[in-house]
Amino acid sequence: MNFYNDAFKKAKQMQEEMKKLEEELDEVKFKGTDIDNYVTIYVSGNKLPIKIELDKKIKNDLSVDGMEEAILKALIQAYEKSEEHIKKEMSKITEINKEMTEIIGMEEEMTKITDDEDIPF
């Protein structure tokens, strides 16, 4: 069994998945809105605000405090969606890392068994 090759393959797979995730996070958008849909905010997968849309009725229907609250709620919702997506994608990468760690652990266990044996010469 070639543990090092297997571990190297898993490390390479993890690196490729990380690169893929970084590229995806630059492209993907998440939308958040307040409860009355006065405010819509889009954030990137990296949680950076991209765009804010305001319903024209907001200035007549809400006070300044109400507008601030609506903006904050929309921003939090978009941010939470982005964060949830990142966690989901990172769990896939963590699983690859776990597999790699198991391979390395098996190699160490095999080495220990071999080192512990008395080999008569």
- Indicate the mean pLDDT: 83
**Spatial arrangement of strands, main beta sheet:** 1-2-3
Radius of gyration computed on alpha carbons: 25 Å
Structural class: alpha+beta
Q: Segments where pLDDT lies below 50 for 5+ residues?
A: none
Helicity range of the residues?
A: 55-70%
**Looking at CATH, which topology would you report?**
Ybab, Chain: A
Second CATH tier, the architecture: 2-Layer Sandwich
Report on this structure:
The chain is of the alpha+beta class and 121 residues long. It has one domain: 2-Layer Sandwich (Ybab, Chain: A), CATH 3.30.1310. 68% of the residues lie in helices and 14% in strands. It has 3 helices and 3 strands, in the order αβββαα. A 3-stranded antiparallel β-sheet has the order 1-2-3. α1 packs antiparallel against α3 (64-116). It starts with a helix and ends in a 5-residue tail after the last helix. The mean pLDDT is 83.
List the helices and strands and how they pair.
Elements (H helix, E strand, L loop, with lengths): L2 H25 L1 E5 L5 E6 L4 E6 L3 H4 L2 H53 L5
Antiparallel strand pairs: 1-2, 2-3
Helix pairs in contact: 1-3
Which key features would you list for this structure?
3 strands, 121 residues, alpha+beta, rod-shaped, three-stranded antiparallel β-sheet, Ybab, Chain: A
